[in-house]
Amino acid sequence: MVSLSSSSTTDSPRALVLFITLGCAKNEVDTDRMRALLLHAGFSETADADEADVAVVNTCSFLASATEESIEATLELAEDASEGVRSLPIVMCGCVPSRYGDALPHELPEVSAFVRADEEDGIVGVVREVLGIGEDERGPVTSEALRTIEGASAFVKISEGCDRFCAFCAIPYIRGRYQSRPADDIVSEVGSLMEGGVREVVLIGQDTGVWGSDLPGTASLATLLRQVAEVVRPYGGWVRVLYSSPRG
């Protein structure tokens, strides 16, 4: 794994974090952001639950079945830990805490902390509190530190939420109303990813076709694609778009 930031070094043992991501590609981006924040703060990553000091589970609640899968995965992880020789604190993040909020601590006592989707930038403080780890001397995290690179393709989120309120979907209630991410932020992230070796960026959002409609001026998905293409073209890269509605 290559981080877009250079983390500080320390001689003390680093707590190991297990990341589990459920749901769509947007959750993968959110997990990657939390991963980069934790790595910058001095934590290390493991894919082995037996080695982990804490598990961060990023959940989905798009449909009832997705909620059930998220809860089952969390309980399965807790059960596996209880059968081992040491406990594994679990931090549940994302859509399930956003949707069910205050009811969860009573329903899921196996979970040490709950982090709503709009609170995930505070993941470092939450994990430190769960593990009883104090603050360190690392400096502030810059925008370049909020992604890691693990291959030639990467998702880039361009919006949050949705305004459509479809009968079958709970996204507006979980993630809020549609909010376009500023073009400058998107273009900057794409540039950092390209410099780090990515050659395909996939622009994602719940409703990518209406990107820019809530921004001042004449911003649109077409204008954004032109800006992104200017960054990607010198690298011979590709740009793809996911989750575009026919009505968008």
What does this structure look like?
The chain is α/β, with parallel strands linked by helices. It is 34% helix and 19% strand. The protein has 8 helices and 12 strands. The protein has a 5-stranded parallel beta sheet with strand order 3-2-4-5-6, with helices on both faces. Helix 8 (221-232) links the parallel strand 11 and strand 12 (238-241). Helix 7 (183-195) runs parallel beside helix 8 (221-232). The two termini are 36 Å apart. The model is unreliable at 1-12 (pLDDT under 50).
Short description:
By secondary structure, the protein is an alpha/beta fold.
How much helicity do the residues have? 25-40%
Number of DSSP helical runs: 8
* Order of H and E elements: EEHEEHEHHEHEEEHEHEHE
Tell me the Rg in angstroms. 19 Å
Give the averaged pLDDT, no decimals. 86
Shape: globular
The number of distinct β-strands equals 12
Widest β-sheet, arrangement of strands: 3-2-4-5-6
Question: Which structural class matches the secondary elements?
Answer: alpha/beta
Low-confidence stretches: 1-12
Give the distance, in angstroms, between the N- and C-terminal Cα atoms: 36 Å
Strand content: 15-25%
Multimer state: single chain
The profile of the biggest β sheet is: 5 strands, parallel
Give the helix/strand layout:
Elements: E1 2-3, E2 16-21, H1 25-40, E3 44-46, E4 54-59, H2 64-82, E5 90-94, H3 95-100, H4 104-107, E6 113-116, H5 123-131, E7 148-149, E8 153-157, E9 159-160, H6 171-175, E10 179-180, H7 183-195, E11 200-204, H8 221-232, E12 238-241
Parallel strand pairs: 2-3, 2-4, 4-5, 5-6, 8-11, 11-12
Antiparallel strand pairs: 1-7, 9-10
Helix pairs in contact: 7-8
